[in-house]
Amino acid sequence: MIEAEEFVEAARELGFTRYTGVPCSFLTPFINYVINDDSLEYVSSTNEGDALATAAGAAIGGQRSIVMMQNSGLGNAVSPITSLSYVFRIPFLIITTHRGQLGLKDEPQHELMGQITEKLFDLMHVPWEIFPKDAKDIQPALKRAMDHMEKEQRPYAFIMEKGTVKKNILKKNPVTDIRNRKKELRYSFDEQIDLADRNTVLKKIIEHTPINNSLVIATTGFTGRELYAIDDRHNHIYMVGSMGCASSLGLGVALARPNLKVVIIDGDGAGLMRMGNFATLGSYAGNNLIHILLDNEVHDSTGAQATVAANIDFAKVAEASGYGLSLSGNQLSIIDELFASTNNEGPAFGHIKIKAGTIDDLPRPDVLPVEVLQRAMHQIGSKF
């Protein structure tokens, strides 16, 4: 058994100062130590996939990161592991617990995942080892992890068994109280005008995102492909999978780079898929983050099947989640207002109704995802 301090401080020496995660009782002493230390940063995510994507975003911003989760929640992280960190080659540490381990009396919901945790990491091509139980084993384990991450630019995992870390008492709340934050909610719908298409809105966003001081993250599907078709700039990241994770990835970048304007372009289907991340952004993001949701009420790239977006007030969700500014409407002027506002506390959100469909002969990016990420990191002066 080790003290949490022994691992965390050894990791700090290697540059790991950002932690994200969803708690597990096995991890309690470890998480408590991180939260108690004001010089470390912790994001309490609503699910494991978003925690992992936020860690990936922080890594993109140049901040070495560790994501912590219970193995029963590892399933929530499969998509961003396989289609975000693997495809884009983003290195960070994963610490997952081993609930349901063979020979350990545990709750029934952990039985199957306990049997397949190691196999699941193997299938996802994530090398792993048992989290060190003795202080003398910590630095060698971290060296093996670092060697892999530096060579392959992909994650490395530790599996933590029960009783690995000694107790540590939580001394403070990791979440800033934003209940008294000044929040502005505005609507601007004009039933007399035709809805704009996605291409028109994206061109307006490009006007407001100069290549030298902003990073634009476009959700998977037609959004990223149209952005690429309009202007393939080095401050663009086109998500090619991990649907719904654009906002959590953007949060990680924005936290790591508070002087950089980070713009997330979401879709209604993607926003609905991981709506819990609205609350995380509201609590943790600063006013360097702008979250734009293009809403055509359908999953456009898969055949225009309807989403439930027509029944959702996204701007009200954003306001309730703590965004400093929340706008909703069907006019292009929303984009101008979002970028003109600099005094709001916390992130800004813009919901825009658009028409379904895309441009003729919509291309797919001919630049590989890893190349997209490398040039974007170079553009913002970042490195792993």
Please describe the topology of this protein.
Elements: H1 4-13, E1 16-21, H2 28-36, E2 41-44, H3 48-60, E3 64-69, H4 78-88, E4 93-97, H5 111-123, E5 128-130, H6 138-152, E6 156-160, E7 184-188, H7 198-207, E8 214-218, H8 222-230, E9 236-238, H9 246-256, E10 261-267, H10 268-273, H11 276-284, E11 289-295, E12 298-299, E13 305-306, H12 314-321, E14 325-329, H13 333-340, E15 348-353, H14 369-379
Parallel strand pairs: 1-2, 1-3, 3-4, 4-6, 5-6, 7-14, 8-9, 8-10, 10-11, 11-15, 14-15
Antiparallel strand pairs: 12-13
Key descriptive features of the protein:
2 domains; six-stranded parallel beta sheet; single chain; 384 residues; 14 helices; Rossmann fold; 15 strands; alpha/beta
Low-confidence stretches: none
Whole-number count of domains: 2
Shape: globular
The largest beta-sheet arranges its strands as: 7-14-15-11-10-8-9
According to CATH, what is the topology of the largest domain? Rossmann fold
CATH class of the largest domain: Alpha Beta
Beta percentage is 15-25%
Total of DSSP H or I helical runs spanning 4+ residues: 14
Average pLDDT reading: 96
Brief description of this entry?
Helix content is 37%, strand content 18%.
Give a written overview of the molecule:
This protein has 384 residues and is α/β, with parallel strands linked by helices. The chain has 2 domains: 4-160, Rossmann fold (3-Layer(aba) Sandwich), CATH 3.40.50; 184-379, Rossmann fold. 37% of the residues lie in helices and 18% in strands. The protein is built from 14 helices and 15 strands. The protein has helices spanning 4-13, 28-36, 48-60, 78-88, 111-123, 138-152, 198-207, 222-230, 246-256, 268-273, 276-284, 314-321, 333-340, 369-379, and strands spanning 16-21, 41-44, 64-69, 93-97, 128-130, 156-160, 184-188, 214-218, 236-238, 261-267, 289-295, 298-299, 305-306, 325-329, 348-353. The strands form 3 sheets. It has a 7-stranded parallel beta sheet with strand order 7-14-15-11-10-8-9, sandwiched between helices. It has a 6-stranded parallel beta sheet with strand order 2-1-3-4-6-5, with helices on both faces. A two-stranded antiparallel sheet has the order 12-13. Helix 3 (48-60) runs parallel beside helix 4 (78-88) and helix 9 (246-256) runs parallel beside helix 11 (276-284). It is globular and about 70 Å long. The two termini are 31 Å apart. The model has no long low-confidence stretch (mean pLDDT 96).
